[in-house]
Amino acid sequence: MSSETGPDENVSDENLPAEQETAHGAEVAEGDPFVDPGLPPHEHRIQDIDERAAKRSERVVAFLFTLSMLATVGFIASFVAFPIDEIIYVWPLGHISALNLSLGLTLGVALFCIGAGAVHWARTLMSDEEMVDERHAVAATPEVREKVIADFKQGAKESALGRRKLIRNTMFGAVALVPLSGVVLLRDLGPLPGDKLRHTAWKKGKLLVNENTNEPLRPEDIAVGSLTFAKPEGLEEDDEEFQKEIAKAALMIVRLEPSDIKDKRELDWSHEGIVAFSKICTHVGCPVSLYEQQTHHVLCPCHQSTFDLSDGARVLFGPAGHPLPQLDISVNKDGYLEAQGDFAEPVGPAFWERG
């Protein structure tokens, strides 16, 4: 019969944790069989011992930062080089916008190169020696604060930012240029309006056409106290630009007693009490359509802005910022109402360039 042995009788003493060789920086507490593994011995990188290798890494980092600058310039140039409606075929993506493709590629390269350059710089040229620092209380003592400042200065020195001027200058250039991409992106919020907001389809001699009957209006077609909606002659619903043009040129016509009109210019621009104002509310551009015959007030249904059509369409109530623009009208030799020109000011909501 075989004899029984204890569980530790076949284990040699050199395999016990207390007898194992400790790693670099490890400490063994007396009576504690578990060894703190510590940190392995530090291994120097090739850049730490070979200046030529360090120079190569410096050139790589500088190349990445320079490439980022070129990509940012390419991003900005894309807005000029590619029309917004140009479509190209790119395999395997298919037909896509040339502008969107160029903006995505150039901005992606610019941001990637800054990140890759910073990572390569940190991994090859900055100090990589591990340091152990015990945790401390949240409220740091003066000695700890001094140590933090000293560590920061030491880190700045070890980063070689002052000595590696090529890296420093190209990094500053890349970081300074890449925000321009965001500034240029503001242009993509929409095409620049130019003076389009200041002009509509109304011109001198354009007849006022009833939107419902599509017939030119005569003064006798408009009764006192009535509200009529009109559009410029020649603007048809099947036109490609109809929606864009009617959004600016929509007109409402009201006939008042001439004695009820308080504003002199409104009276001069009217015909026998017939006044014409823009139908587009000056708050957010809703169509004004609710008319109070007794008070000569017109109400915007969206946010209750109220305008007095007997007093230059001035704002009586609500968030609208300025009166409805008036259209100067008269009667031609054939007896039809016609415009004497365009609106004297832009129609619709206010914008920052508006005086």
Which geometry do the CA atoms define? Answer: elongated
Going by helix content, strand content and strand pairing, the class is: alpha+beta
Q: Distance between termini?
A: 112 Å
Tally of separate domains: 2
Subcellular location: Cell membrane
Transmembrane segments: 60-84, 96-121, 166-186
GO molecular function: 2 iron, 2 sulfur cluster binding; metal ion binding; monooxygenase activity; oxidoreductase activity, acting on paired donors, with incorporation or reduction of molecular oxygen
InterPro entries: QcrA_N, Rieske_2Fe-2S, Rieske_2Fe-2S_sf, Rieske_Fe-S_prot, Rieske_Fe-S_prot_C
Supply database-style keywords.
single chain; 355 residues; alpha+beta; Rieske Iron-sulfur Protein; 2 domains; four-stranded antiparallel β-sheet; 8 helices; 12 strands; 32% helix; disordered N terminus
Any overview of this molecule?
With 355 residues, this protein is of the alpha+beta class. It folds into two domains: 46-189, no CATH class; 196-339, Rieske Iron-sulfur Protein, CATH 2.102.10. It has helices at residues 46-49, 51-81, 98-124, 142-158, 165-177, 179-185, 242-249, 264-268, and strands at residues 87-90, 94-97, 208-210, 227-232, 251-255, 274-278, 290-292, 297-299, 306-308, 314-317, 329-331, 337-339. A hairpin with a 6-residue loop joins strand 8 (297-299) and strand 9. Helix 2 (51-81) packs antiparallel against helix 3 (98-124) and helix 2 packs parallel to helix 5 (165-177). The termini are far apart.
